[in-house]
Design a protein that fits this description.
This protein is an alpha+beta fold. The protein is about 10% helix and about 20% strand. The protein is built from two helices and five strands. The termini are far apart.
Length: about 110
């Protein structure tokens, strides 16, 4: 099984897409035309337009937050929460299924 990401919009709509191990949560969203993740910098961690809220049960599936990502999360359009991450930094593992919620806006 490949990786699977379920994106939940701020209004509650859900979309699920398949990804591969090594893909980022952002890359899967962009490849599938998900408009709620802007990803302006393309994944180079120089903007915060791929901000997501990771389901609490899935947080342990990802590497810990880096100092740079932590600083970038202070610049998001919607206030960060304890489960906030930049989706470009969330790398999928084989056979994982994760769930993220996108904020009302990225800009």
């Amino acid at each position: 099984m490949s990786a699977q990401v379920t994106y939940v919009s701020a209004s509650g709509e859900e979309m699920t897409f398949e990804g591969e191990a090594g893909d980022s949560v952002m890359a899967v969203a962009v490849r599938n035309g998900l408009s709620t993740i802007v990803a302006e910098c393309g994944g180079s961690m120089s903007c915060s337009t791929c901000h997501v809220f990771v389901d609490e049960k899935d947080l342990a599936l990802f590497d810990p937050i880096s100092e740079v990502e932590d600083e970038m999360l202070d610049t998001t359009a919607v206030d960060r929460e304890p489960n906030s991450r930049l989706s470009c930094q969330l790398v999928l593992r084989e056979d994982c299924a994760v769930r993220v919620t996108t904020p009302e806006t990225q800009m």
